[in-house]
Amino acid sequence: MSPRNARLLHDFTLIYSRLDSCECNVTDSQNAQQIPTPLPLRAPESLSLNSWEAESGAALLRELRAPPKRGCAGKEIGDMAVQTALQKSLVAVGPAGRHTASVIFLHGSGDTGQGVRDWIKQVLKQDLSFQHIKVIYPTAPARPYTPMRGSLSNVWFDRYKISNDCPEHTETIDMMCQALNSLIDDEVKNGIRKNRILLGGFSMGGGMALHLAYRHHQEVAGVFALSSFLNKNSAVYQALEKNERELPELFQCHGTPDELVLYSWGEETNKTLKALGVTTTFLSLPNLYHELSKTELEKLRSWILKKLPEEP
């Protein structure tokens, strides 16, 4: 299966798990209500699976619709093990000489650092590269993922379900924030100031970056979130309600027909962060599903250069 089709198949299995609206292992019954089933979804025209891939996808969907496995949301991975896995998985694209700024780009659920780099190269026909900036692509360690019935997946944190209207799984979010701190610390040790570092990502990676920047590293140059969202009553919002510091600028993009991470979720995230004092840019992209586009990445590249110009 090609990397792109594998990613799309992963996305659509998650869509169907959201449509099933399975009951989650959450104690707050008010926030754990089921999601009403929306209108039937249609796949992007670019999705083309062979018969083996289609059969594999059907089998996986049957597994997703099986009775949910309980307790998978609470499984832990040791902090040191996570940090070690992150360090071993790093993929970096940098200048031949010394870099003076850094971008940490976090992949979406089920992907890898190398996978999202290859995806970007496929869309742009070249790397997202700069003369003075190193772009770092870590990979989230595999962990049980509740929306996939507890199956192992490369995800930054767990979710109770794919919805903005349920509690965040703060335990796994906080654990991953601690692990990702080490990547930022390494750049600082190498002489890169925090205000010369950008944090961001695609889908879940963008959500992870929002937590990392606005709760733990408000000195960074900025944050970008592509097809991403925060849950209602997110810990990010709670942290910013008490904040009096200048906050990193946010660059956010979202496809209007996105059927996995709904456009309205991204729009609501942006409006809430703006109301809490974040300077934001929100780019609406028609005809873009839950994927990357050339227009989006070119706009992101320009924004990165604006936030991290070459130093004299």
Automatic annotation (TrEMBL):
- State what protein this is by name: Lysophospholipase-like protein 1
Q: What is its EC number?
A: 3.1.2.22
Which top-level group of life is the source organism from?
Answer: Eukaryota
Catalyzed chemical reaction(s): S-hexadecanoyl-L-cysteinyl-[protein] + H2O = L-cysteinyl-[protein] + hexadecanoate + H(+)
The chain positions of domain Phospholipase/carboxylesterase/thioesterase read 93-305
Q: Which Gene3D superfamilies match?
A: alpha/beta hydrolase
First-level EC class: hydrolase
Give any GO molecular function from the UniProt entry. Answer: carboxylic ester hydrolase activity
Physiological role: Palmitoyl thioesterase that catalyzes depalmitoylation of CGAS and KCNMA1. Acts as a regulator of innate immunity by mediating depalmitoylation of CGAS, thereby preventing CGAS homodimerization and cyclic GMP-AMP synthase activity. Does not exhibit phospholipase nor triacylglycerol lipase activity, able to hydrolyze only short chain substrates due to its shallow active site.
- Main location, first listed in the record: cytoplasm
Q: Per its UniProt record, what InterPro entries does this chain match?
A: AB_hydrolase_fold (IPR029058), LYPA1-2/EST-like (IPR050565), PLipase/COase/thioEstase (IPR003140)
Assigned keywords, A-Z:
Acetylation, Cytoplasm, Hydrolase
Family the UniProt entry places it in: Belongs to the AB hydrolase superfamily. AB hydrolase 2 family.
Compartment(s) where it occurs, according to its Swiss-Prot or TrEMBL record: Cytoplasm, Cytosol
Quote the cellular component terms of the Gene Ontology held in the record. cytosol
